[in-house]
Write the C-alpha cells for this entry.
Amino acid sequence: MKKLIFGSGKVANVLLDKNSIIVPKKQCDIANKNDVLQIVKEHAPDVVINCAAITNLERCQDNMYRSYEVNTVGVINLLLASEAVNSKFVHISSGCLFDGNESPMDEGATPDPKVWYTRTKTWADEFITNYDYEDYLILRPRQLISKKPHPTNVLTKFSLMSEIHAIKEINSITCVEDFAEMINHLLDKNATGIYNCANEGTVTPHQIALGVKKYLSPNLQVYETSYEKFLETLKNRRVNTVLSLEKIKATGYTPRLASEALEWCLREYGDEK
C-alpha cells in the first residue's frame, strides 16, 4: 500500500516505512490547491495521509488566517486531490474538539470548540463528512506522547521545565507509536468514517508530571493546582477530554492501557529506534 504523507511531525515520522513518502511543508504548502494536486497526481498513492497542522493554540490565535489556511483549507485541498486520483484520504484531526471528561465522548458527539485551533479543526472535519466522497478516515487522537523527543511531545515539554503546577483532571492520551498501529490497522480493515484513537483508560497531567520527574528530570518540582487556577495562567483555554474507544475496538484492535503506554514512553524516551 503506497502512502503519501503530508507533514513532517512526530506522527508522520512514525508512519514512515518503505512504502511511504513524506512531503514536508517546505516542499508543499497544503494551502496551495494546485501544488497539492500536482504532487498527489505525480505519486498516485493508494492513501493520502494528512499529518500537517498548526497545533499550538497561541500560534493559531495570533495567526488566525494562516492557521485557517493550513488546518481547514489545506485539508479540503488534500481531500479534493485524493478524490482526483481515487485515493483513500486519512486526516489526523483532534480529540480536543470536545470539552468534558465526565463520560467518554464517542464519534457521534457534537464538537464544542472553545478556541480558534479547535474551530479550524472542526470546520475541516465537517467539510469532509459533508462532501460527496466516502473513502476517508478522520482520526481523533488526544494529547500525543511519544518515546521520541519532539517540541510538541508533552513529555519533552515537561522535561524542559523547572517546575510544574499540574491538575488532576483525567484525560485520554495517545501514544504516537500506538497511534501508528491504529492507523495501519484501520487501513488494513479498509475502514472509513470517524474513529477516536487513544489508549485505554485515562491519566492526569499530574501523573504525567510525576512520571517525567521519576524518569527524565529528577530535579523537576511538581505541584498540584486546581483547574480554575490553571486556566487563569493561560491565554487560551485547554480542555479535559475522555474519548470513547468502543468503535475502534469493534474493528478488532485492542488499545494498550494509557498508564502502560505512558510508562513505556518514559522508560524508552530518547530511543530513536
In short: The CA atoms of residues 106 and 244 lie 5 Å apart. Residues 64-85 form the longest helix (22 residues). The chain has a mean pLDDT of 92. Residues 3-267 form a domain with the Rossmann fold fold (CATH 3.40.50.720).
